[in-house]
Amino acid sequence: MIQLRQLNKSYPTAGRALHVLRDLDLDIAAGESVAIVGSSGSGKSTLLNVLGLLDGFDSGQYRLDGRDTRGLDDRTAARLRNELLGFVFQSFHLLPDKDAVENVALPLFYRGLPRKERLKRAVAMLEQVGLGDRLDHRPGALSGGQKQRVAIARALVTEPRVVLADEPTGALDTTTSAEIMDLLDGVVARGMTLVLVTHEPEVAARAHRTIRLRDGQVVSDHGAEG
């Protein structure tokens, strides 16, 4: 599903290039759950942005579902994101002036689905994540855990092949974090691929594999213990 070969990514800083990802090789199969861990500055978020087609790369190869992603124009990248990817962020990224249903339905708008069908699918997905009684609530009226459930519903409503999650439990208490991870485990049970960045060992331990980055390179890649 995901194949990286000799991938490099750098950013210009103070007149010189900051090399963030270095000759990175990585394969993630369809239906796997993979946790990416590492200290601050190790390249975790940059890697997730590249995987999500939110950022380009300097050299190497990234194939997503068999498609070469190098040099995509903005329109093609946006189409592939909408077709193949779902995103879950630590800060939720919900629209404050839209209720839960409208937030979840938004990706379907970009697919061109009629409003009635969009709302029907959004309601069904919110019910699946346990928010059937919060359909008309805006983000400001929801708890952190409820906001993350809305974000997960939004990520899943297009039935993506890959779900990318950046610190999905980082802003949540322990009990709520476990509930959110139960939902993300369900992503894999439905045959999707899950790639998540986390600094929490107990979250990483729930993935099939844990990949540790250091200075933009993979330094370990092993199955989660337990």
Question: Your description of this structure?
Answer:
The chain has 226 residues and is of the alpha/beta class. It is 34% helix and 29% strand. It contains 7 helices and 10 strands. It has helices at residues 44-51, 74-84, 100-110, 115-128, 144-156, 174-189, 201-204, and strands at residues 2-13, 16-28, 33-37, 59-64, 67-68, 85-89, 162-166, 193-197, 209-214, 217-223. The protein has a 6-stranded mixed beta sheet, with helices on both faces. It has a 4-stranded antiparallel beta sheet with strand order 2-1-4-5, with helices on one face. Strand 4 (59-64) and strand 5 (67-68) form a beta hairpin. The radius of gyration is 17 Å and the shape is globular. The two termini are 25 Å apart. The mean pLDDT is 90.
As residue ranges, the low-confidence spans are none
* Class by SSE composition: alpha/beta
Q: How is the biggest beta sheet arranged?
A: 6 strands, mixed
What order do the strands of the largest sheet run in, or round the barrel if closed?
A: 6-7-8-3-9-10
How far the N terminus sits from the C terminus, by CA atoms, comes to 25 Å
Which sequence of SSEs, written as H and E, runs from N to C? EEEHEEHEHHHEHEHEE
Q: What is the count of helical runs?
A: 7
Mean pLDDT: 90
Q: Provide the gyration radius in Å.
A: 17 Å
What's the helical proportion of residues? Answer: 25-40%
